[in-house]
Amino acid sequence: MAELEYIRWIREQTRQHPRVLLPAGDDCAAVKWPNHQPLLITTDMLLEGSCFLREAGPQRIGRKAMSVNLSDIAAMAAKPIAAVVSLGLPHDLPQSWAEAFFLSLQAQAALFDTAIVGGDTNAWSGPITISVTLFGEPTGKGPVTRSGAKPGDALLVTGGLGGSILGHHLDFTPRVKEAQLLHQTVELHAMIDISDGLAADLHHLCQESGCGAEVWAEAIPISESAQRRNDINSPLHHALSDGEDFELLLAVNEADAQRLIKTQPLKALGVNLSHIGRFTKEGEVVLKEPDKSQPLPALGYTHQFGQ
Length: 307
Description:
Elements: H1 3-13, E1 20-22, E2 29-31, E3 39-47, H2 58-75, E4 78-90, H3 95-111, E5 115-124, E6 129-138, E7 154-158, H4 168-171, H5 176-185, E8 190-193, H6 198-209, E9 212-216, H7 224-228, H8 235-241, E10 248-252, H9 254-263, E11 273-280, E12 285-289, E13 292-295
Parallel strand pairs: 4-5, 9-12
Antiparallel strand pairs: 1-2, 2-3, 3-6, 4-6, 7-10, 7-11, 8-10, 9-11, 12-13
């Protein structure tokens, strides 16, 4: 069973609850909080050997563990508030490693004014296992979901894509500030962070919004790391499928897109915006190159199990 099939099955089994404002399907869930605005909740689990290698060091691993959750909060254009952390640590792991890991986790949280308020720690004979749950709150216009893209909307992306395995997957900056600035500047119709891959996450947006999309190959911002990958795949293929870019993929109306591309409001934060396509009425996702147009499958990373 593939991860997405399992998630679909879980969603089918989940009953509605009156306090759930946004159920599973976005980067965060949202629940109604008494006498308060909605509470946003997201969680990510990182496994040694799959999400990181121990050789990367506790500082980089701690940074990533917090950042992947911060990136989910960014995808909702929300503000992170607090986190809880659960760890499964091998019996032979030095205490100095565990301490350095937490200090890095804490430092990354502090950069975004986020408190670590608790969690759980266990020791076992397996690999390092890290689970972080992050709580956040919407900013002024409310949370941005994956389901609001409309035919004719422009498709924009932050930063460069591809080649994250060369280090970016550990050292990226979650686009929390960028998302909030965009949310203040224009009306964001839909947004997602690119964790599985540009093509895969675009399929997620289209599925939730009931749209198709066309992507312009020549407009995709290919990172220097993707250009340096020396294998059988092209830099474009890496930009479409590598995943763990943790950039923002967003839908806005065409007029707002033109304004954003012209003014580049994220330049002050060192981030570029690119207009890479548009949403369509058709359900298909298409890649348009200068000499051809073809269906774009949901290229990207998928967890597999139950084989």
